[in-house]
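Worked Example 4.2. Consider the chain below.
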Amino acid sequence: MRKQVVFAPEDVILVSPTKRTIETAQLLIPNKNLAFFSPLVGPRMFPQNSEFVPFVCDQIYSKEELSHQYSDIRLVELGMDCWEESINQMDADRFQILAEQLLEWCRQQSGNTFITSHDGTISNYRILLGENGLTKSDFLGEAGQYTIKNF
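Applying the procedure from the previous section yields the following structure tokens:
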């Protein structure tokens, strides 16, 4: 994938603050200065079911843990503290409000915004961006590109 995606200096990569997504981003990103961390692209179940128990591997790092491990960390917080309240089991209305703020942040970037996240999270954003009728089979093995400047 690193050979297929070319990052420009003005591009940013938004990374979920979990071990597996950080490791994936480190393999892809030629310049670590492009990376931002945000719990708003952290793990999110799809489909949402309040009775499901989150996986241990979906535990996000705290800001303190990230700061300790990555000295030049940059966070996207948007004036709210989502680090304590995971989006994994957040109700749809609250997620939509926060996700729309993140999408607006993406629109304001001078380059492209690439997101290294989880399949369930991406599916939830795809629904927010207007796709209907998605199921789990729609995201298995799939990677895509969205232009969100006009949404």
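The beta strands are 12-15, 35-37, 113-116. The chain has a mean pLDDT of 82. Compare this with Example 4.1 before moving on.
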